[in-house]
Inverse folding.
């Protein structure tokens, strides 16, 4: 039997690498997409292709190369994302806002359009978008990030309705704070300022734990394996979204 083939964008990130590793363990050929080259590591992917998802020409080239090497695409996981931008909206530069949406929403659209067209010709395939809890609940000064994550979920909803009758399943995962190297760097930076960011995160979670990359990877595989899952918004947050807890926003000090 031919091995199923999965494409994972953002393969170099903490979430993308965990997804790639899980799909490899489940018998998939994993083609990872990333803007930057990484040392070859078969624990993350079978093959890596460089791609800036904001560039339609690059996405087109990657898809043409993919088709020369593989006859099918069974799963597309859109796991790339712009780093969170925490900036008050009034001084937020329009180009910063645009770049976040270009990366998260436009890039997701380009990948879904390209690989989804291939899946439509096969009459089968799964697309899983990794969005964020910020698509539903967000923080002050997260205008660009929240708008982008909500846009990704909106894209999923429409595609699930449009393509659901053609043999495709389209779903999204909305994780809360995931314990990635990026999160650990934020915690370390806060510690240097005398702030306990980890404890602040844990106080919001009934489980007192961060979401693990493996939690996201497990959910991706579960969505792909379940034939009834189409148009699902799977929240992974340990119960954070059930709370009315809110901490007011203060403008950054000039000091």
């Amino acid at each position: 039997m031919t091995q199923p083939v999965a494409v994972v964008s953002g393969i170099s990130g903490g979430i993308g690498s965990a997804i790639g590793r899980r799909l490899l363990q489940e018998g998939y050929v994993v083609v990872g997409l990333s803007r930057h080259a990484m040392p070859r590591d078969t624990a993350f992917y079978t093959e890596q292709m460089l791609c800036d998802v904001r560039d339609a020409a690059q996405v087109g080239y990657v898809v043409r190369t993919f088709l020369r090497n593989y006859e099918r695409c069974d799963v597309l996981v859109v796991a790339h994302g712009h780093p969170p931008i925490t900036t008050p909206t009034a001084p937020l530069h329009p180009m910063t806002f645009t770049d976040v949406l270009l990366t998260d929403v436009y890039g997701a659209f380009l990948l879904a359009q390209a690989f989804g067209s291939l899946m439509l010709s096969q009459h089968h395939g799964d697309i899983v978008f990794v969005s964020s809890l910020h698509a539903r609940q967000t923080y002050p000064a997260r205008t660009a990030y929240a708008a982008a994550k909500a846009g990704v979920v909106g894209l999923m909803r429409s595609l699930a309705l449009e393509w659901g009758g053609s043999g495709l399943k389209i779903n999204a995962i909305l994780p809360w704070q995931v314990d990635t190297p990026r999160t650990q760097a934020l915690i370390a930076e806060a510690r240097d300022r005398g702030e306990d960011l980890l404890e602040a995160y844990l106080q919001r979670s009934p489980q007192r734990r961060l979401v693990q990359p493996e939690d996201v990877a497990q959910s991706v595989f579960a969505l792909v394996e379940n034939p009834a899952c189409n148009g699902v918004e799977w929240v992974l947050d340990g119960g954070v979204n059930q709370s009315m807890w809110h901490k007011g926003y203060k403008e950054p000090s000039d000091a």
Notes: Strands lie at 5-9, 29-34, 47-50, 75-78, 125-130, 168-175, 233-236. The CA atoms of residues 90 and 159 lie 33 Å apart. Helices lie at 14-25, 56-69, 94-122, 143-163, 181-192, 197-204, 213-225. The chain has two domains: 5-176+212-240, 178-210.
